[in-house]
Design goal:
- The complex is a heterodimer.
- Chain A is an all-alpha fold.
- In chain A, 78% of the residues lie in helices and 0% in strands.
- Chain A is globular, with a radius of gyration of 23 Å.
- In chain B, helix 7 (165-173) packs antiparallel against helix 8 (178-189).
- Chain B has helices at 2-33, 51-57, 63-94, 99-114, 117-130, 137-160, 165-173, 178-189, 191-207, 210-215, 223-234, 238-261, 263-266.
- Chain B is globular, with a radius of gyration of 23 Å.
- Classes of the chains: A mainly alpha, B mainly alpha.
- Chains A and B meet through helix 1, helix 3, helix 4, helix 5 and helix 7 of A and helix 1, helix 3, helix 4, helix 5 and helix 6 of B.
Chain lengths: 276, 267
C-alpha cells in the first residue's frame, strides 16, 4: 500500500486533461482562426489595431498594479499585527481574514454599493464635514474600483504571508533584540524579509484576481469603466465574436501570465527564498 | 528605546486593527442592511425589521429568486460530490507517487486555481459547443468540478501527507484488502480535509459568476447572476436578505471548518 498511487490519481488526471487542458488548446486554436476559415493572426492584428482594445488592456493591467499596491499598503499593518499577536489573537485574525474571503463576491460588492452610495456613510460624513457640498454617489470611478477590489482581494495577500509567518521561529526577533536592534530596525531587517516570499505569492494571487473580477468591475465601475473581462463578455454575449473574444482572452492570459511569472520568479530569488 | 517601542506598538496595533476593520466592515454592513425596515439602501438603515426576509421567502413574489437558489444549490451539491469523487482519491494517490511523476501531476491538478475562471468559462464554452454540447446545468456542474475540484484536492492533500502509513500497513497485515483498508482506515482519517474542502468548493460554486455566465443556458438562472441582475437593474433590497443568509452560512461553516482552514495548512 505504500506504492501505487496511479489508480487513485488517474480519474482526476483524465478530468483535468479532458475538461481543462483540451478546452484551453481549443481556445488557442480558435483565436488563430480567421473569419475566412483559415488560420492566421487576423484576430490579433485586429485587436492590436484597435485603440479602444489597447486602452482596455492597458487600463486592466494598470488596475491590477494599483490593487496590488493598495492591498500591500493596507495589508502590511495586518501582517505586523499578526506577527506580534499571541496565539488567541492570531486565530481571531485568521478567522476575520477567512470570513470576508468566503462571503460571496456579489454580496461584498453589494455591501460596497451601500457604503459608497449617495445615502451611504462615507458620502454623508464627507458632506457633513464640508468636503463635498451635498451627499453624492462615490461609485462609478476608478478610485472606487481600486478601494473595493483592495478590500475584496486583501485576504489573498494575507493568507500566504500568514502561512509563512506561522511557520517562522520568533526567537529570531529575540536574537536581534539581544544584539541591540530597536523595533523599527527589526521590522525592516527581520520581519519584512521573512514575510517577503509570502507577500510575493500574495501579489500574484491579488493581481490575477483583480484583473479578472467580472462582477466587481462591472458593478462598481458602471458602464463607463470597461476592463478586459467586460470586453470579452461583450464580444461573446452581445456581438457573438467568438474568435476575437478568444484572442482577447489569450492576450489577457499571456500578459497577466508574464507579469505573474515575473512576480513568482522574484519570490524564488536566492536572497528572498533563503528566508522562506 | 522605550519611546520608540511605545510608538511602534501604537502604530502596529492601531493601524493593524484599523485595517482588519476595513477588511471585515463590508460583511458587517451587508448583514446589518439585511434587517433594514426602509425601502431604500441607506446606512445606517431606517429602523430594523424582517420585512425583506419575509419578502425573500414569499413563494409568489420571489419565485424567480427561488428558482435561481434551487438551481445554484443543485449545482453546488453536485459540484461538491464531483470534487469529492475525483479530487479526494487523487490527493490520496498523489502522496504515493514517485518524485518525477508527482512533479508533473501536482501542477496540472492545481492549474485551474491559477487560471482566471473567466478565461476558462470562455474556453469551455467554445470547446464544448464544438463537440455539440449546449450550455446547460450539467455543463455548469462539469465546469465547476474542473475549476473548484482542486480546492478539495488541496484541502485533502494537506491531511493525506500527514497520514501515518503504519496504520494502513497494520490493516493490510491483518489481511484486509487494499480497497477495504482505504475505505475503513484512510477515508475516515481524511474526513477533516474532506469537510473543509467540501465547504470551500460549495461556497465557491454557489458564488461563481464567470463559469456560469458562459456555461448556463438562458433558462437556467443561477443565484449570483440573478443577484447581479437585481443589483444592476433596481438595487432590489431583497439582495440584502440573500446576503444575510449567505453571510450566516459562511459564519457557521467557518466556525466548524476553522481548524482545518488555518493558513499554515491551507497554502
Amino acid at each position: 500500500m505504500t506504492r501505487g498511487g496511479v489508480p487513485f490519481v488517474a480519474p482526476m488526471l483524465a478530468l483535468s486533461i479532458a475538461g481543462f487542458l483540451v478546452p484551453l488548446v481549443v481556445l488557442a486554436a480558435f483565436s488563430f482562426s480567421d473569419p475566412a476559415g483559415g488560420f492566421g493572426l487576423a484576430n490579433y492584428a485586429k485587436l492590436f489595431a484597435d485603440p479602444l482594445a489597447l486602452q482596455v488592456l492597458f487600463d486592466t493591467l494598470a488596475l491590477g498594479f494599483k490593487v496590488v499596491a493598495s492591498t500591500t499598503l493596507i495589508g502590511l499593518p495586518i501582517i505586523l499585527l499578526f506577527w506580534h499577536a499571541g496565539p488567541r489573537e492570531r486565530s481571531l485574525i485568521v478567522f476575520l481574514t477567512l470570513l470576508p474571503m468566503l462571503v460571496s463576491n456579489v454580496v461584498r460588492t453589494f455591501a460596497w454599493i451601500v457604503i459608497l452610495g449617495r445615502q451611504g456613510p462615507v458620502s454623508q460624513t464627507l458632506a457633513q464635514l464640508g468636503f463635498i457640498p451635498a451627499p453624492r454617489s462615490l461609485l462609478f470611478n476608478e478610485t472606487a474600483i481600486v478601494v473595493v477590489l483592495s478590500q475584496i482581494e486583501l485576504p489573498l495577500l494575507l493568507l500566504p504571508v500568514m502561512a509563512v509567518l506561522s511557520r517562522t521561529d520568533r526567537s529570531l526577533v529575540s536574537a536581534a533584540e539581544t544584539l541591540g536592534a530597536g523595533p523599527w530596525r527589526i521590522l525592516a531587517t527581520v520581519i519584512l524579509p521573512l514575510a517577503a516570499p509570502g507577500i510575493l505569492a500574495g501579489w500574484v494571487l491579488v493581481f490575477a484576481s483583480a484583473t479578472t473580477s467580472y462582477v466587481t468591475q462591472s458593478v462598481i465601475g458602471g458602464a463607463r469603466h470597461i476592463y478586459l473581462p467586460q470586453y470579452i463578455y461583450r464580444e461573446v454575449g452581445v456581438l457573438f465574436q467568438w474568435p476575437s473574444a478568444a484572442a482577447i482572452a489569450f492576450v489577457l492570459l499571456a500578459t497577466t501570465g508574464i507579469i505573474m511569472a515575473a512576480m513568482a520568479m522574484l519570490s524564488r530569488h536566492p536572497r528572498l527564498a533563503s528566508h522562506g | 528605546m522605550a519611546k520608540s517601542d511605545r510608538l511602534y506598538r501604537a502604530v502596529v496595533f492601531g493601524l493593524g486593527w484599523l485595517a482588519v476593520a476595513f477588511m471585515v466592515a463590508p460583511v458587517a454592513v451587508g448583514l446589518v442592511m439585511s434587517f433594514t425596515a426602509g425601502q431604500t439602501l441607506k446606512f445606517p438603515p431606517d429602523g430594523f425589521s424582517l420585512r425583506w426576509y419575509t419578502a425573500l421567502f414569499d413563494p409568489v413574489r420571489s419565485a424567480p429568486i427561488h428558482t435561481a437558489i434551487w438551481n445554484s444549490l443543485q449545482i453546488a451539491v453536485l459540484t461538491v460530490l464531483g470534487a469529492f469523487l475525483f479530487a479526494m482519491p487523487a490527493a490520496y494517490g498523489a502522496t504515493r507517487l514517485k518524485g518525477k511523476v508527482s512533479a508533473i501531476v501536482e501542477p496540472l491538478m492545481l492549474a485551474p486555481l491559477v487560471l482566471p475562471t473567466l478565461v476558462y468559462g470562455l474556453a469551455a464554452l467554445i470547446a464544448f459547443s464544438n463537440i455539440g454540447l449546449r450550455p446547460s446545468l450539467p455543463l455548469v456542474v462539469l465546469g465547476h468540478v474542473v475549476v473548484f475540484g482542486p480546492l478539495m484536492y488541496r484541502a485533502c492533500i494537506a491531511i493525506a501527507q500527514r497520514l501515518d502509513p503504519s496504520l494502513e500497513e497494520a490493516s493490510t497485515l491483518l489481511g484486509v484488502g487494499a480497497f477495504m483498508t482505504f475505505l475503513r482506515i484512510t477515508l475516515p482519517l481524511m474526513v477533516p480535509g474532506i469537510l473543509a474542502g467540501a465547504f470551500l468548493v460549495f461556497m465557491q460554486s454557489l458564488d461563481n459568476v464567470s463559469v456560469s455566465l458562459f456555461l448556463a443556458d438562458a433558462r437556467t438562472s443561477v443565484l449570483p447572476l440573478r443577484m447581479f441582475a437585481m443589483i444592476e437593474e433596481s438595487l432590489d433590497v431583497r439582495v440584502a436578505a440573500i446576503s444575510g443568509v449567505l453571510i450566516a452560512i459562511v459564519f457557521v461553516g467557518l466556525f466548524f471548518a476553522r481548524r482545518v482552514l488555518e493558513p499554515s495548512r491551507q497554502i
